[in-house]
Design a protein that fits this description.
12 strands; 13 helices; Aspartate Aminotransferase, domain 1; three-stranded antiparallel sheet; globular; alpha/beta; 399 residues; seven-stranded mixed sheet; Aspartate Aminotransferase, domain 2
């Protein structure tokens, strides 16, 4: 009998049965009141996850990359200057997308494993007295290196220099798993997708736009048709979609949002931190190092781990897959062959995380890594046990 193991990649993530079953519905007429009645409550609840009251949420049948393209093409024109730091594969891909759309991209090169360089942004913005820079693009959670950047600090860089550039944030692998505060951080365009924290299949790009970003639509000259914000916003206001919507994913999203809001966003973030910290303690017990260069940068959704000198991380992930049927993330870009990734986001518990750590220990031992079998699992177990005891104690006090 073939038994499905959970995946430990940073997306697409494991899907709860409730969500998977919710997507197994018969087609409905997307021009009917039945669709209209479902759409606006979804968009309203998505705003709660972005933590925006004044922004608009816009969805497209696409992956997060489609959301990137929509954000750029609806608000910028060919020749506009944008400022981006490259500190991982996904910030690199955003640079590539902007260059293909004929934007003038100014790149700040950073060490992989570091985060968004707020101080360097501030220095560059201060020199831009003519305000030629129209947008500042930041990856909140760099999935290739397991690094979370401080978006509030980037906003301070803009405010302290009194610079009017719009702030674009890729929150594909952070939203609905780690705290994101669109209004508080002054984010103008936030890009996410269905396949990570929302625990759905790939197929829905989810973009939140500030009123400043929406005002930029009329002057933006980048070509767009399928990804035109105006068409989507106009249709949504009337409870519709400008073309065929992904009905099944929307139905799953309804259940996803219900689960997240029922658990409580703060509890969702705390669960992700707890699971991530247990995994980080396991990594330390193995004697391995994270790609993130300091604890303040540690991601709560994915850990990227260097393998020792002389080992190939691709061989390790392939071995874990073929022998034990468990998928871990490969090293991307500069991390290729040097690091593997453990995704720990979405529908995940302490016990599921322990199973992934155990499988990785077996794979490493098979390949003669210098680790003590059970060491990482034991370190994570001890942390999870302590957390569970504290939670029980708090519940008894509350009762």
């Amino acid at each position: 009998m073939q038994i499905e193991n959970p995946v430990f990649i940073p997306g697409p993530t494991n899907m709860p049965d409730q969500i998977r079953q919710a997507m197994q519905i018969q087609t409905i007429d997307h021009r009917s009141p039945a669709f209209s009645e479902r759409l606006n409550p979804l968009l309203s609840d998505l705003k709660k996850v972005f933590k925006t009251r004044v922004g608009e949420v816009i969805t497209f049948p696409a992956s997060g990359t489609g959301g990137w393209e929509a954000a750029v093409t609806n608000t910028l024109s060919p020749g506009d200057k944008v400022l981006v730091a490259r500190y991982g594969m996904f910030s690199h891909r955003w640079i590539d997308l902007c260059q293909r759309h004929k934007l003038e991209v100014e790149i700040i090169e950073c060490q992989w494993g570091s985060g968004a360089p707020a101080e360097r942004f501030a220095e560059r913005l201060a020199r831009d007295s003519e305000h030629e820079i129209k947008a500042l693009l930041v990856t909140h959670n760099e999935t290739a290196t397991g690094v979370r950047s401080d978006i509030a600090a980037v906003r301070h860089a803009l405010n302290d220099t009194d610079h009017p550039a719009m702030l674009y944030v890729d929150c594909v692998s952070s939203l609905a798993s780690m705290d994101f505060r669109m209004d508080e951080w002054g984010v103008d365009l936030a890009v996410s997708g269905s396949q990570k924290g929302f625990m759905l299949s790939t197929g829905l790009a989810i973009v939140a736009a500030s009123q400043k970003a929406i005002a930029a639509i009329d002057s933006a000259q980048c070509p767009r048709c399928f990804f035109d914000f105006r068409d989507m916003l106009d249709a949504n206001r009337n409870g519709g979609y400008p073309y065929t919507p992904p009905i099944q994913i929307f139905n799953g999203l309804r259940v996803s949002l219900d689960l997240l809001l029922e658990e409580g966003l703060d509890n969702v973030f705390a669960r992700h931190y707890r699971i991530a910290e247990g995994i980080r303690r396991a990594i330390a017990a193995w004697g391995l190092e994270l790609c993130a260069i300091s604890p303040d940068l540690y991601s709560d959704t994915v850990s990227a781990i260097y393998v020792p000198e002389g080992f190939d991380s691709n061989i390790l992930t392939e071995h874990a897959y073929h022998k034990y049927g468990v998928s871990f993330g490969i090293g991307l870009g500069e991390m290729n062959g040097k690091a593997f990734r453990i995704g720990h986001l979405g529908a995940l518990s302490d016990v599921i995380a322990l199973s992934g750590l155990s499988a990785m220990e077996m794979a490493m031992k098979d390949l003669n890594y210098n680790i003590e079998p059970g060491s990482g699992v034991a370190a994570a177990q001890e942390y999870y046990r302590t957390c569970a005891e504290e939670m029980l104690l708090n519940l008894s006090k509350a009762g």
